[in-house]
Amino acid sequence: MGTRHNRHASQHKTPCGPQSVWATGQHEPATDLIDRGYHIDTAADTDRVPPAVAERAIEAYCPPRGIVLDPDCGAGTVLAEALRDGRSAIGVTEHRRWRTLATANINAVRYAAGVGGMAFVAAAGDHALRASRAAGLTGQIDLALTSVRTHPPDNTLTTAGAKLRALLENTRPLMRPGARIAIVVPAARTDGTPAGLLRLTLDAGASVGLLPTERCVALTGRLDHGEIISHAQAPLATAAIAQRKYHRRPLIWPAHVDIAMFTVPTTAAVANTQRFPMQSTDEPRWAA
């Protein structure tokens, strides 16, 4: 994986604080994976957190030498970017294929970049939580960063919502008070990703007592003279064109992902929330 290329570093010459829009899509996804040294099979994880988005979120919301958790880590892009940025990383996944691939990506960044932070990938389930607690990590995680997984069998709002709530319930005990939990939410698109995922994500966070604090937009398309150009892959483009031609459906080529940002409440924050409950809205307010 190696050290950061100049083209990546140049995007972060200014402090990486919370912003409502992140310019994280300047490079085509497959090329970005290659340039960062990921295993070739990483592209098969279509619900992965884009490395540039993971990098930006980690730099903005996790302190130096902090601990990053991805409770549904897939191919391990969040873990690799956390290590590359000098943080420790913990990943959890129920799929053996992703555990193997995430471990390979972790080992690659260790070898190429010479980093030595803690990192491991655990199987999903209660034993993963026990392993984390045994390592003294209860209440120690600084940032949880993951994505809503929408591909089969999780391609309906009902199944995605149930899984997300369970994920957040298992994640919260590991977080320190005041820590952030960031959920990357894909946009509705032509290949069947359902609409309404952002509202579902906000409801899932509220159901486990998390405080919604920001909504950010991370671009997955490149900026070109003031326009956002989607990196639509050939199969997606073909499907979209066919739907427009034969079914008169609109083209939906996503060029961004939403990020729902939550804060793990402190005792004082919980008391204030109970005293002055937030008003329910269809969409969270934009970050200033």
Automatic annotation (TrEMBL):
Any single GO BP term: methylation
Residue segments, region Disordered: 1-24
DNA methylase N-4/N-6 domain ranges (all copies): 35-94
One Pfam match: N6_N4_Mtase
Compositionally biased region (Basic residues): 1-11
A GO molecular-function descriptor: methyltransferase activity
Keywords, comma-separated and alphabetical: Methyltransferase, Transferase
InterPro entries: DNA_methylase_N4/N6 (IPR002941), SAM-dependent_MTases_sf (IPR029063)
Annotated protein name in UniProt: DNA methyltransferase
